[in-house]
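User: Okay, second chain of the day. Same drill as before: sequence in, structure tokens out.
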Amino acid sequence: MKPQDLVVLLKIISCGSKEWFHHTLAESLSISQSEVSASLNRSKYSGLIDSSKRLVNRLSLLDFIEYGVKYVFPQHPGQLVRGIPTAHSAEPLSSEIQSDEKFVWPYYKGNTRGQAIIPLYSSVPEAIQRDKTLYELLALVDAVRVGKVREQKIAMEFLRKIIQNAEQAVYKS
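Assistant: Same drill. Structure tokens below.
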């Protein structure tokens, strides 16, 4: 697995019941179609997407996020930078958790100052500008990656609600 595999799977979930194509995923995430294809192949191999590469195996994905993501894609808060809020500093967690500590994805157009959290993929700050659901999902995953136990548990509750209740996206080849 590569970090962008998780981003691609979460993007598919954020599509809801809308049709998606390899090229639309690639365009919306600012990655190449070949990267999307390779990502889907890796996700199929790991059991996070079905054999047709159309439907995300939501329970397996939730298990991976809860028990594996902090070990496979670890991250520690870095220096103070300007960027986009993530983890407990972004919605929906910022309404639940009060903290003086801010975590951000470094981004030159960001308007929040906080400790740097390197996103799962370099194009994430651009991709989330066009997709609020993807932003929430990725921020919640970051809370699992860098948060304390309480933050991780609350983030997983939100992730379960969003991922299990999202309509299945419609794949088009």
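The chain has a mean pLDDT of 93.

User: Thanks, on to the next one.
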